[in-house]
Specification:
Number of helices: 10
CATH superfamily: Peptidase C65 Otubain, subdomain 2
Distance between the termini: 59 Å
Number of domains: 1
CATH topology: 3 helical TM bundles of succinate and fumarate reductases
Order of helices and strands: HEHEHHHHHHHHEEEE
Helix content: 40-55%
Largest sheet: 6 strands, mixed
CATH architecture: Up-down Bundle
Strand content: 5-15%
Shape: globular
Radius of gyration: 19 Å
CATH class: Mainly Alpha
Length: 253
């Protein structure tokens, strides 16, 4: 390898390291802010204009852009709605405590390979249910190591749903994938992989909930389009811009 190529690789590695260090400075879940605060993070005027079209009822929690932002925002948005005295809460806790474990086994995962994630997730979530506290939830989901267990568990549940309903999802696989199993192994199960519409649909099916995505994209017009997937009593709203999700909160929900 020539000295010039070695220098290029070294410069690229240095840039990636600097980007990684900058990302790690961001909080996993930020404080509640007005939606217009995002303008300071944007350079594309199209995106800035679309921020102005988002209803003022929304506030935002910024999420660390580490590839897990969708799962972290989805989990926080879901858990933040739960009240131990509502039927919706009982339904979701039941899923966490038993249904998802059964889902993973039916999808062909070896119990020994997923038990650690299931056990830790169950312990953490039961502690949250007992505490019934937003502060306890933030403490859990802003702890990088503890939250990784939950995010990995969500990824496994998403993968299991895709694998079990592979005939439904197979026609919509992105290139170069021809099989759901390969797609799940490469793009769903590993940490830090970004999310596409297939994973969102699978999570909605697994949880029996809805996900609303407000999109900052380059579509015509100055209005931010919305896409709602899934059906269910619980709704999580996320803000999408290419390669990243933040959590939107609504005073009317």
């Amino acid at each position: 390898m020539s000295t010039e190529i070695e220098a290029q690789h070294a410069a690229q590695d240095q840039l990636l390291s600097e980007i990684d260090q900058e990302v790690k400075k961001q909080p996993l879940i930020g404080p509640v802010e007005p939606i217009v605060s995002l303008k300071s993070t944007l350079t594309d005027q199209i995106f800035i204009d679309k921020i102005d079209s988002i209803p003022a009822k929304y506030t935002v929690r910024r999420l660390r852009g580490d590839g897990n932002c969708f799962y972290r925002g989805f989990l926080f948005g879901l858990l933040a709605q739960l009240d131990t005295n509502t039927p919706n809460s009982d339904h979701l806790w039941q899923k966490f405590s038993s249904s998802f474990s059964e889902l993973l086994v039916r999808a062909g995962f070896e119990p020994s390979a997923v038990d650690i994630f299931f056990e830790v997730a169950q312990e953490e979530l039961e502690a949250l249910r007992a505490a019934h506290s937003l502060d306890a939830m933030l403490e859990l989901l802003t702890d990088d190591m503890r939250s990784k267990y939950l995010i990995t568990y969500l990824r496994l549940c998403c993968s299991a749903q895709l694998r079990l309903d592979h005939e439904q999802y197979q026609p919509f696989l992105p290139e170069p994938y021809a099989a759901v199993d390969r797609f799940c192994a490469d793009e769903v199960e590993p940490c830090d992989r970004e999310v596409d519409q297939l994973q969102i649909q699978a999570l909605c099916a697994a949880f029996g909930c809805s996900i609303r995505t407000v999109m900052l994209d380059r579509s015509p017009g100055t209005a931010a389009n919305e896409l709602v997937l899934g059906e269910g009593p619980l709704l999580v709203t996320l803000l999408f811009r290419p390669g990243h999700y933040d959590l939107l909160l609504s005073s009317s929900e």
